[in-house]
Amino acid sequence: MIRLTSLRAACGGLLSLALAGAGVAAAAAPPAAALDTELITSGTTEWRYLDDGTDPADGLPGRTDWTAADFDDTAWQTAAGSFGALRGEKKALSGGHTPDNLLTQYKDGTVENHEAFFFRTTIDVDAADLEGGKQLTGSVLYDDAAAVFVNGEKIAGFDDGGIDYLAVLPREVVIGI
């Protein structure tokens, strides 16, 4: 079985997910080679998501450990459908798409954007379905950047060249004299 577990989107305040087809990956083969079963759709797929500005990797050994299939995301919010925010409101986004769920775009008491939103869902795919050149394909609507992980492995990135997923970021700042 293959389990799709994570989508990380780095945003400047706007994110909309419209996942269709058979998954979330870049299509390298013609559509005829794709699985003919929809596994994720923007209107019905249930997502766990984090939109409060916290870092899901905080306290974990690796920056992308939150993308592993066994990561505990039970404390995250859950909703079905697409997600986004435009100036802190649920409005029509790029291309006229209005998200189903409003993300918390701004940090508390400010108009400063949260740096990133994090999403996870699970699908089951039989290995036999991927034989003979079939593959998972899909699309994502995003603003600024997005990255897609399957079982902890990055499989697609969209305008995410400036994000260093392997960097060890400081967990605290010490100010002294």
List strands and helices in order, with pairings.
Layout: E1 2-10, E2 46-50, E3 77-80, E4 83-84, E5 101-102, E6 116-120, E7 124-125, E8 146-150, E9 153-158
Descriptive overview:
- This protein is mainly beta and 177 residues long.
- It has one domain.
- It contains no helices and 9 strands.
- The strands form 2 sheets. Strands 1, 2, 3, 6, 7, 8 and 9 form a 7-stranded antiparallel sheet that branches.
- The N terminus and C terminus are likely disordered.
Helix segment tally? 0
Rg from C-alpha positions?
Answer: 17 Å
How much of the polypeptide forms β-strand, as a percent range?
15-25%
Give the CA-based shape. Answer: globular
| Helix coverage percent | under 10%
Strand pairing plus helix content: what structural class? Answer: mainly beta
What's the main sheet like?
7 strands, antiparallel
Number of strands: 9
In total, how many domains does the architecture comprise?
Answer: 1
Poorly predicted runs: 1-6, 10-32, 169-177
User: Can you give the mean pLDDT?
Assistant: 70
How far is the first residue's CA from the last residue's CA?
Answer: 55 Å
The ordered string of helix (H) and strand (E) elements is EEEEEEEEE
Keywords: Signal
Signal peptide: 1-27
Short description:
Keywords: Signal. With 177 residues, this protein is an all-beta fold.
Main attributes of the structure:
single chain, 177 residues, 7-stranded antiparallel β-sheet, globular
